[in-house]
Automatic annotation (TrEMBL):
Subcellular location: Nucleus
Pfam families, per the entry: TFIID_NTD2 (PF04494)
Protein's recorded name: Transcription initiation factor TFIID subunit 5
Annotated TM spans: none
Lineage top rank: taxon: Eukaryota
Compositionally biased spans, kind Basic and acidic residues: 165-176
Taxonomic classification: Eukaryota, Metazoa, Chordata, Craniata, Vertebrata
Keyword Transferase: no
PANTHER family: TRANSCRIPTION INITIATION FACTOR TFIID, TRANSCRIPTION INITIATION FACTOR TFIID SUBUNIT 5
Keywords: Nucleus
Residues in coiled coil: none
Predominant cellular place of this UniProt entry's protein: nucleus
UniProt xrefs under SUPFAM superfamilies: Taf5 N-terminal domain-like
Underlying gene: TAF5
Region (Disordered): 156-176
């Protein structure tokens, strides 16, 4: 368990977590509607991993403020997970928590169009926001597809699981 949690020890300035998350939120709210729904999917896994990094590194007051400020922005289908997460306020609480271990050991799957992905990547590189980019690269599996960005209703139909969406390969069972 400690090995699983130790990845959270790589962290930046705790005072900047709110700034980074708010900045990304402002950016996503400013993009064209067709990209907003897809890019908004990044909020939940990012929120969880940033919160857990703060808790793991004993920044309890920053973690509490971060949770209070941004937990209400998450989709309603994550309500139960957020309730569990809110009870993890100290590093000791993280040990042996099944929800946390599931979230920590499997990459959160996001399906987004190539255009939406490029927008996100360009924004983070321009802002030199390595904190968020590192979390995305380490904890998310981004399934990029060519084509039109998906609508909010298309995304909602596939979302809500603790691990994000199923990887497309998971649905390709061999038929004999």
């Amino acid at each position: 368990v400690n090995v699983v949690l130790s990845a959270y020890s790589q962290q930046g300035d705790p005072a900047l977590y709110e700034v980074y998350y708010s900045g990304l939120k402002k950016f996503i709210e400013s993009v064209l509607d067709c990209h907003r729904a897809e890019l908004s999917q990044v909020f939940y896994p990012l929120f969880v991993h940033m919160y857990l990094e703060l808790v793991y590194n004993n920044h309890e007051s920053e973690a509490k403020a971060f949770f209070e400020k941004f937990s209400g922005d998450q989709e309603c289908y994550y309500e139960e997970d957020l309730r569990v997460l809110s009870s993890l306020t100290k590093k000791e609480h993280m040990r042996g928590n099944e929800t946390l271990l599931d979230f920590r050991t499997s990459k959160f799957v996001l399906r987004i169009s190539r255009d939406s992905y490029q927008l996100l990547k360009r924004h983070l590189q321009e802002r030199q926001n390595n904190q968020i980019w590192n979390i995305i690269q380490e904890h998310l599996y981004i399934d990029i597809f060519d084509g039109m960005p998906r609508s909010k209703s298309q995304i909602d139909a596939m979302s809500g699981s603790l691990a994000g969406e199923a990887k497309r390969e998971a649905n390709k069972a061999k038929v004999e």
